Amino acid sequence: MKSKEKRVLIRIIIAAVFVAAAMLAPLEGVWRLLAFLVPYAIVGWDVLWRALRNILHGQVFDENFLMALATVGAFCIGEYPEGVLVMLLYQIGELFQDLAVDRSRRSIASLMDIRPDWANIEREGKLVQVSPEEVAVGEIITVKAGERIPLDGVITEGTSSLDTAALTGESLPRAVAPGDEVISGCVNESGLLRIRVTSEYGESTVARILELVENSSSRKARYENFITRFARWYTPIVVIAAVILGLVPPLFLGNWSEWINRALIFLVVSCPCALVISVPLSFFGGIGGASRKGILIKGGNYLEALAHAETIVFDKTGTLTRGVFHVTAVHPRNSTTETLLEAAALAESYSDHPIARSLREACGQELDSSRVTKVEELSGRGIRAVIDGKTVCVGNQKLMAEEGSECHKCHRVGTLVHVSINGQYAGHIVISDEVKQDAAGTISSLKELGVKKTVMLTGDAKEVGEDTARRLGLEEVYTELLPAGKVDQVEELLKQKSEKGRLVFVGDGINDAPVLSRSDVGIAMGAMGSAAAIEAADIVLMDDKPSKIPLAIRIARKTLRIVRQNIVFALGVKAIVLVLGALGLANMWLAVFADVGVLVIAILNAMRALRIEK
After folding, report:
1. Burial class (CB within 10 angstroms; exposed 0-12, middle 13-18, buried 19+) of 442
2. Edge-to-edge strands of the sheet including 140-143?
3. How far apart are CA 613 and CA 322, in angstroms?
4. Cα–Cα dist 46/44, whole Å
5. Which of 207, 273, 354, 487 could form a disulfide with 63 if both were Cys (CB 3.0 to 4.6 A apart)?
6. 613 C-beta neighbours (distance < 10 Å), count
7. How far apart are CA 34 and CA 31, in angstroms?
8. pLDDT number for residue 555
9. How many Cα atoms within 13 Å fall on the side-chain side of residue 3?
10. In a 3-state reduction of DSSP, which class is residue 385?
11. Are 537 and 520 in contact (CB under 8 A)?
C-alpha cells in the first residue's frame, strides 16, 4: 500500500471513530450538526474540493459532483448520519479502486524490471559500467552471473543458462553457448558471457517491449469508448432527473423533505463510477495477465478483436515450423554432388536466409567468397550469381524456366532448390524444415475454441505446403505465394468471414509485415521475429510458441466476459434501485449499496482478469 493510500485509510478510520461517537452522543441542534460535520470534513474535503475545482474548469458532471451534491443535500434536510456515511463508504470504494489499479499496474510494472541499468564494456583495459544507450553495434559487452543482459547480441565466449521468465513466462532456463543469439532482458544465471552487440538499445527487445506496454492503454476497446460516451451523457441526464424528482412532485403533492430525500437517493445510486472504473480495469488486468505469460498486447481494442477470432491464418516458416533447415537429399544432373552443393553454397554465401545457411553447412568446406563476382537477388525466385566467370542460378522452378533449364521432378517432400550453370540444369537439392512441437496441438486447441477456419500461406512449393498442412490438421493451404500474393489471399479471406468475426494473421518475417497490418489482428513471433513484423503486429508472442495463441484467445474471451458481467450487473442493480428510490421504497443505505457496494463487487470481479489459469 502506497503512502497516499495509507493516508486515505487513516482518514477513513478516524472519520469512522468520530461518526460512531456522534451517533452515540446525546446531542441536539447545532451541536449534533457540528459533531457530524467534523468526520464529514475529515473524510470528504478532497471530494468537495475536486467537485468545486472541476465546476470552475467547466467539468461539472462527474462522480465528485454527484457525491458532493448528494451528501450536502443530506445535511440540508437534517439527515446528518446518512450524509457522512455515504461519503465514508464512497471513500472506501475509491480506496478499493486504487488498490485494484495498483495491483494491475504492479503486474505490468514487473515487466519494467527488465529495463537494464548498465552494460559492462571494456575500455582502456578496464571493465566499466556505461548506459546501454552508449554501446554501439559490434562492441563486446560482458555479462556476469546474476546480471541482466542489457542488449541483443550473439555470444562470442562463455556458456550459461538464461532465465527468460520475465519475457516469455517460461520457468525453464535456456542453455546458451558461443554462436547463440541472446535477447536483452534475460538474466544470466551462471557463467560469464561475452556478447557482440547486434542492435542499438533503442532497437533492442527490451526497448520494444517497454514501448508496447507503456502505449497499450492508449488503444481503447469498443466497450471502453462506449462507457466513456455513456458517462458523458448519463451523468447530466440523471442530475436533471434528480432535480425534477425533488422539485416537481412536491409542487402538487407537498412533503418537500420526502421528495428531496428521494432525489438525493437517486443521485447516490446514479453515480457511474462502477462502470467507469471496472471496464478499463478489466482490460488493463487482461493485458497485464497476458504480459506475465509472454503475450504482449498493444491495446484493449486488439484484446477485444481477438476474442472474436473466426479465421486464423498462419505463415509457415518460423511460425508453424522452426525455420531450421537441413539438406535431406542431393540429386545432381550433369554434375557431381560436390559441385552442385558448392555452386549453391557459393551463390548463397552472402545471404543470411535459413536455407542459405543450410546449404553452406551441407557443403562442409571453406568457401572462398572472392570467387563470386556478382550477386543478384530475384524476388520470389532465387539468386543469380557469377562464380568463376560462370552464371549460376539457384532458386525455384520459375527461375529455371526463365533460364530455359528443364527441372527434374522429385519424389521427396521438401523445399526444392534448383541449380543451373550457364543455363544448363545441374540438379536440385531437397531441404526440409522441422515442424514446431506444439504446432499440431495449437491447431487442435483453436478448433476446440470454436475457430471456424485455420489457413496456412507459404511461398513454398505446393507439395511442401500441403504436406505440412496435412500433418498439422490445417483446413486450407495456399502455396507458392509472393508477399503481395499473401496480402491478396488475406483480402479474399476477409471477404469470407462473418460480420462479427475477426481474421487473425500469425507471422514472423519481414515479408509478413504487410499482411500483419492488413489483418484484423496481427500476431508476430517476437523472440526470433523481425523488428518490422513486431512493429506491424498488434500482439507479440515473446517465446515464438504457437501454443500461446489459444491461451491469448482464452484470456481475451475471459476479459470480455468480465466486462459484460460488470456492465449488466452495475446497470441492472442501479436501474432497480433508481426506480425503488423514485417510488420511495429505497432508503439511503440501499442507495449506498447500489453505488459503493456495486463498485467494490465490480472491481473485485475485474481483478479476476489478472489471474491466468495454467
Report:
1. buried
2. 126-130, 119-123, 140-143, 193-197, 153-157, 181-182
3. 27
4. 6
5. 273
6. 8
7. 5
8. 93
9. 0
10. strand
11. no
DSSP secondary-structure letter at 593?
I
Calpha distance 606→56 (Å, rounded): 33
How many angstroms separate the CA atoms of 193 and 17, rounded?
Answer: 61
- The DSSP-derived string for 15-49 is HHHHHHHHHHS---HHHHHHHHHHHHHHHHHHHHH
Nearest to 286 by CA among 564, 556, 599, 603: 556
Q: Annotated catalytic, 315?
A: yes
Number of Cα atoms under 13 Å in the Cβ half of residue 284: 26
For residues 315 and 508, is the Cβ–Cβ distance under 8 A?
yes
**What is the rounded distance in angstroms from the CA atom of residue 133 to the CA atom of residue 446?**
41
Which pLDDT value is given to residue 228?
64
Question: Which residue bears the cell 571453406?
Answer: 366
pLDDT of residue 107: 52
Distance, CA of 120 to CA of 142 (rounded, Å): 5
pTM score, two decimals? 0.68
Which of 62, 152, 163, 315 is catalytic? The answer is 315
Domains belonging to the chain, first-starting first, are 3-109+217-284+557-610 (no CATH), 119-205 (2.70.150.10), 300-320+436-537 (3.40.50.1000), 323-434 (3.40.1110.10)
Q: What is the DSSP string of 92-146?
A: HHHHHHHHHHHHHHHHHHHHHTTS---EEEEETTEEEEE-GGGPPTT-EEEE-TT
What's the burial of 272, exposed, middle or buried (CB within 10 Å: 0-12/13-18/19+)? buried
How much is the pLDDT for 213? 57
Q: Which residues of the chain have pLDDT under 70?
A: 1-2, 60-62, 97, 100-115, 165-172, 205-206, 208-221, 223-225, 227-228, 231, 273, 411, 509-511, 527-534, 613-614
Angle, helices 80-112/3-24, rounded to nearest 10 degrees: 160
Q: Is 306 left (phi over 0), alpha (psi -120 to 50) or beta?
A: alpha
Following DSSP, what letter does each residue of 323-377 receive, concatenated? EEEEEEEEEESSS-HHHHHHHHHHHTTT--SHHHHHHHHHH-S---GGGEEEEEE
Q: CB under 8 Å to 70, separation ≥6 — which residues?
A: 86, 264, 267, 268
What is the C-alpha separation between 477 and 471, in angstroms, rounded? 12
Dihedrals φ, ψ of 32, to 5°?
-70, -40
Distance CA 365, CA 426 (A): 20
What distance in Å separates the CA atoms of residue 49 and residue 455, rounded to the nearest whole number? 58
DSSP character at residue 610: G
- pLDDT of res. 217: 54
Cα–Cα distances in Å, from 59 out to 51, 387, 453?
9, 75, 49
pLDDT computed for residue 350 by the predictor: 81
DSSP string of 262-320, one letter each residue: HHHHHHHHH-THHHHHHHHHHHHHHHHHHHTTTEEE--HHHHHHHHTEEEEEEESBTTT
Cell of 227: 462507457
Strands of the sheet containing 160-163, edge to edge, are 174-176, 160-163, 187-188
All three cell numbers of 105: 499496474
